Amino acid sequence: MAAASRNFEDCLPLMANKLGGDGLIGELCNGFNLLMDADKGVITFESLKKNSALLGLQDLSDDDLKCMLKEGDFDCDGALNQMEFCVLMFRLSPELMEASRFLVEDALEQEFRDSH
Known about the structure:
The chain is 72% helix and 0% strand. By secondary structure, it is mainly α. The longest helix is centred in the first third of the chain and has 34 residues, at 2-35. InterPro entries: EF-hand-dom_pair, EF_Hand_1_Ca_BS, EF_hand_dom, KIC/PBP1/KRP1.
């Protein structure tokens, strides 16, 4: 899984810079829609395995796919909803996590300046 997440990790910040925040979230939602089980509205192991080639993840083993699901499955229901998927994608990109931290800090500083 390291090679696949490394490739994605390298592309996600570039996508963010090119598309902006709203555009990136839109693309993540599109990725979610490609991977989800249409009947259940979530990404299951079966839907991830079936559709993973669409995102270049066809070389991941079943164990890698299960680990990916488990890592993002905050409510422990065995599947990823759209929010869990988006959070997982951000967590897999440390550069975006760091940039997000700075954006929050800047917003808090601005809010503090505006209130005084």
